[in-house]
Structures are given as C-alpha cells and as structure tokens.
Amino acid sequence: MAVSIETGTLDPALARLAQLLGIETSFMDNQGRVHTATPETISSVAAVLGFPLKSPAEAGPMLAKIVAERAALLIEPVEVVWLEGPEGIASVPVRLPNQRDKVLECTLTLEGGDCRSWSVNATQLDIVGQDHASGMSLAWLPLGILPAGRHTLELLAAGSKKGVCHLLAAPVKPDVSAGPPKFREALPEVSASQKAPWGLFLPLHAVRSADNDGIGDFGDLKNMVSWAGGKGASLVGTLPMLAAFLEDPCEPSPYSPASRLFWNELHLDLRAIPEVAASPTARALLADAAWQMERQELRDSELVEHKRVMALKKKVLEAAVAEGFAPGGTREDQRKEFVESRPLLRSYARFRAAQARFGHSWHSWPEPERSGDLSSIGDLDPVAIYHQTVQFWANEQMAAVARIARSATSWGLYLDLPLGVNSDSFDVFSHRDQFAMGAAGGAPPDAFFTAGQNWGFPPPHPFAQRKDGYAYLFEVLRHHLEFASVLRIDHIMGLHRLWWVPHGNIATQGAYVRSRHEELYAVFCLAAFKAGARMVGEDLGTVPPAVRPSMARHDIRRLHVVQFGLNPQAEELPKAPAGSIASLNTHDLPTFASFWHGLDIADRLDLGLIDAHEAQRLHAERAWLRDRVVSILVNKGQLPRRDHRDSNASETRQDVWLALLEDLAKGDAGVVVVNAEDSWGETNPQNVPGTWRERPNWRHKAKKALESWDQEPGLQALVEAMRRKAI
C-alpha cells in the first residue's frame, strides 16, 4: 500500500532524500510537458527502496543516517575503469581515513584468479575532491595495468576498517572482432552477396513449417537462418525465447519469462533430439494416432496454443528423459557435464519441481520453501531431472542455430533481452534481494498511453545489485551472448532510469528511479567485449537527454522506426541515424499493411482508446500521409509515376513497402530489419500494447510456411531489391 502523506510543497529534506536515493521528483515527457511527483509517491518509492517514512518529518533523520553510512565506506561497492583497449592503466577513488597517517592494505584479485597485495600510506595519495554526500575527502588509488574483466579490490585501514569493491574494467567501445576464438574461427569470408545491409525478423512462435508441432521450434529457426543467409541477409532476429510458464496460469508473453537464465523447452525440435529416437516410448508416441491427431489440430490452428502444444511435446520429452540415456554412456556423461558446468541449473530445476509440488506462485508456498530452502527436493526428483535435461537439449539446439547464423550471415543471430522477468519467476525467487518487490516497472503517461503503463514485473533494485558487482546481470548476459552475435537491449532507458509504480498505486502515480548508468554500461560493454557481440538499444518513447550520447560513446546501435517518423506535412522521408538498426515497424506496432490502411485506428476505436470523432480525424490524417509518402517516393524516382494512383490500393501498398525499405537501405543505417510478415501483407499485429485478454497477443502464426518462402512474391522482390543495393 502507498504511504499516505499530505500533499503540498515538497519538504526540502524529502527532496534531498529523493535526490540521494535516485528518485526523480519531476520529469519532462516527449511532448515537452513537465510532470511532478507528489510527496506520497516519493515516500512510497523510498519505502520500496528500503527507507520507509511515516511522515515528511522523518526525511531529515533518514537522510542523516544514509550520509553517515556512506561516510563509513572506504570505497564504493562498484567502481568502473574505462579502457581504450583490452587493458589499461587504472586508478580508483577512495575515501581517506580520518587520520591521514593510516596505512591502506590493498589486495587486488583479478577475474582470472591472479592476486597481488601492497600497502600504501594515505599521506602519499593526492586529494582530488570531496564526496558531496558524506563530506569525506577523495583520493585516487593507483592500481597499475588492469586487463578487461570483473575484478575485486579489498582495502583494510589500520587493521579494522574494511572495504570491498567490484572493479568493472571495460572497454569504452567493445571490439566485435575480439570475441572468443571459437567464434572467430567459425566466421567465413563474407561474400559480396552477403553484404546487403538487411536482416529478417519473425517471432519464432509464429513460424509455420512442415515439421513443427504447432509452434516454431529451434529447427525452424535454423532453417530460417539458412534461408535468409542464402538470400544475402546480414542477420536474423526474433523475440525472446526464454523459459516460460506454460501450464496454469499460462503466460505466453516473451517479455514476462519464468527466467532470463534458461531457454524455453517449448521450442525444442523433437526430431533433432537423439534421445527421442533412442526411447521406445517416445517413438511410439510420435507414431500414435491420437498424438498425431492432436498435433495436426495444433498445426492447423490459426493461433498458437501454447499450453496444448507444451502438453503434447512434454509427453515425448518426459519419455526421452526417462529412457533415452544409457547409464554410463557418452550422452549421459555429456548431460552430467553440462549440469555441473551451470550451478544455477540445479537450483532452477528444483524450483520447477517445487512449482509442480506446491503451486505456480512461490509467494504462496509453505515454509521453508517460500524463503528459498529447496532441500526437500533432491536432484533426483523426476521433474528436476526433466528440467535439467530439456535445458541440455535446448543448449545443443541453440548452438546449432548459432553456428549456422555465424557461417551464413555477416552479423549473425539477433536476440532480444527483455527488460524484466515475471514476479513468480525463478530469477526473482533465487535473487529476490536484487529486485524491488514492492513496486512494478512501467512507463509514465504519454500521447499514446495517457493512463501510463504498469508492466507488472519488479524493477531491479539499484542498490542491491551493486553489492555483488551485478553478478545476476552478468549471468543473464552470458546466457544470451553464448549464442547471440547481436543483442537488443529492451528499453535501454532503463539503464539510466525506470518508472516505478508502487503497489497500490495506478500507473500515473509513479516516479522515475535512477540507476548507476555508468556501471550498467560497463557491465554490457564488458559482456559484449568478451563475446565479440554487437549491442543494440531500444531507445523509443520518452528518452532522457543523456541516453543517446551514452549509446554513441559505447557504440550501442540506436533503433530507427520509420512508422514513428512519417509526417503528412514533411517534404522528405525520415532519415535513419548512422549505423542504426532501421525498420518500418516493431513487434509492438501495427504491421505495415495495418498502418497503411488505417486498421490500427479502427482497432483503437474498438478498444475504446479513442472516440468516433478522433478516429475520423486520424483516418483523414492517415490518408493525407499516404498521399504524401507516395508523392515523395515518386519524386525521388523510387516509385513509378502513374496517373490516378490510388494510395490505399493493396498493390500500391506493396510498392510503397518495398520502396521505403530500399530508401532505408540507401541511407546510413547499419542494417535494415524487415518484418517477414509485411512481405505478404499481414494485418494482425503480434502484440497490441496495453491489452491482455482483449487481443490474442504473442499467438499469431505466420500466414506462409517456411517451405513456401521461395515462391512468395513479396519476399522475392525484397531479396532482389537488397541484392541490387549490395552490388
């Protein structure tokens, strides 16, 4: 519940406390309007951060306590050392002891395990400034040459006062060519036909094929990558494919995963698993008439039936787990080695077993399980063994996809890192101190969502995640970058600040909470450097001024979405920023056909988001926009001049679609990402933000099967247009 405090002028102590805690008391939206947080909201957010206030009068004493605690620190729990290359000379700020003659005992442990110790007298350190919060003097402590990595520095003053710091030594701009040797060796010489700056996008759940079981699987993804790479695509992108809740309740959203540390076994290609072929029961199930009938119904369905597909595939997977591994065999040894190499996998598997025993939400489990003690569930629990094994198979199949992507395309596999994780997830259960449990992440009111947005997931706690040097976030990135050559950071503004909605408040009654953005950029840069990967930031919506300069500094590519930039009064088309990832739309926006014909306006009217008068105005504006876009493209010579051209005709739409993509490809974008569904004029969006039961989000299947793509006129026209650009 939100703390009730009388509204009015913000108390100076409360304002200072908010500043120290990183709570923004006001912000400007993308329409230029200023929004001011109320004292109630500020106090509620402070309570979620761990600093509860019963009245504004308590802000002063709370502030003094925080300052005193900070003054007691010899060094911050995290410090960033920016490197111009793989190593560099480093120093970090330390708070000097009260007596300048105290000796600092220093121990530096490098990520690789090497350790060195030395002593330094505080009088030998130059004072370079003052910590404004604590008033303590700051001095630079030289560390010598540091390699890129996550290191640990321990300080001891006069044998009593101790400080521990996680050093993030990260290249300012990660070098893609500096990835792991196994990746570099796998990269072939890129032919001229592979240099066209375009990529293909399609959510994996939406892929139709002759072989899948009602949802796209990792085998389909491998085939899609092969197809696109053979046509000259630079990359292939899809939505998150992370572990999900697929029973009761079923959560199909890829942005509300059961974990950001493991893959979704729903996407396993059954016929590519050796243990399925080795299991008599699994083989019998695949041949069973009832199983085949259910499979055919799920394949024929226009929407993905996540729960039913999982139930169907799980029967085969469970049989293969039980019968497919010969004791002492090579594959059994490989499975055990895989489990041993991932300590969190055992915990995850026991967590899923506990869900099967106690219920979906761990918040309602009995003690001691609710508090994190899963000793009642052993590693030999059948459900635990199942989840260990399906992750083993998923890892194998993702590795196969990544190998194809790195050999068939010049950029590789483009994966998506969701901002949050389901509140009932393994991640929140096992890293609960890393999350702000009393609030939900979201977005403030804007022109499209006037009521703001509440995304439902707990935000990362900006103080708690520093204590272990962002260990959880490093694990999340390691999981993705094991296979991704390009990673999209969902809502990159969250590295700077995130809109928090305290429980009990509506979405408009929130406030922005700042993060240590330099530290977060260091985490991402270091992870990208180690993996040899490119980073892309989703910088759409309300973007603080500091975000895009930070992205440029660290070579994080921007997104450019044409749909956002089209203007009926403009004399030219919107230009993509240099090196950006450009597209006509995103998975959260109407498809091109829907946008072009104004079907999204009708949908907003049907949802009650606008009235009939506003819908009429928007339709007139959209018709004006269509005519303007056609006129610009004709004048540029990118559309043939035809008398009496009907801008609303389907054939005109497809011509415009291709012309807009060619225009992007001729510009400065790094890659033009094409939604495969736009090529055949799909009108149903994958997601309508702000809806849940109102629309079948994350369930739409592609109208065209993979096997037919070579005969699809839109895709063939796209390939030819991009080949012309490559030449």
Question: Can you tell me about this structure?
Answer:
This protein is of the alpha/beta class and 727 residues long. Among the domains are: 12-70, no CATH class; 72-171, Immunoglobulin-like, CATH 2.60.40. 36% of the residues lie in helices and 17% in strands. The strands form five sheets. It has a nine-stranded parallel beta sheet. The chain has a five-stranded mixed beta sheet with strand order 3-10-9-5-6. Helix 17 links the parallel strand 19 and strand 20 (556-557). Helix 7 runs antiparallel to helix 9 (306-323), helix 9 (306-323) packs across helix 12 and helix 11 packs across helix 12 (382-408). The longest helix is centred in the middle third of the chain and has 27 residues, at 382-408. The chain is globular and about 80 Å long. The termini are far apart. The model is unreliable at 1-8 and 180-195 (pLDDT under 50).
Question: What is shown here, in short?
Answer:
The chain is 36% helix and 17% strand. The chain is of the alpha/beta class and 727 residues long.
Provide the fold topology.
Layout: H1 12-21, E1 26-28, E2 34-36, H2 39-48, H3 59-71, E3 78-83, E4 87-95, E5 103-109, E6 115-121, E7 127-130, E8 137-147, E9 149-157, E10 161-171, H4 181-186, E11 198-201, H5 218-230, E12 235-237, H6 274-278, H7 280-287, H8 289-300, H9 306-323, H10 330-340, H11 343-358, H12 382-408, E13 412-417, H13 426-430, E14 439-443, E15 453-454, H14 464-467, H15 471-481, E16 486-489, E17 497-502, E18 511-514, H16 517-531, E19 534-537, H17 547-553, E20 556-557, E21 559-561, H18 562-565, E22 581-583, H19 592-597, H20 599-606, H21 612-635, H22 650-665, E23 671-675, H23 713-726
Parallel strand pairs: 3-10, 11-12, 11-23, 12-13, 13-16, 16-19, 19-20, 21-22, 22-23
Antiparallel strand pairs: 1-2, 4-8, 5-6, 5-9, 7-8, 9-10, 14-15, 14-17, 17-18
Helix pairs in contact: 1-3, 5-12, 7-9, 9-12, 11-12, 15-16, 20-21, 22-23
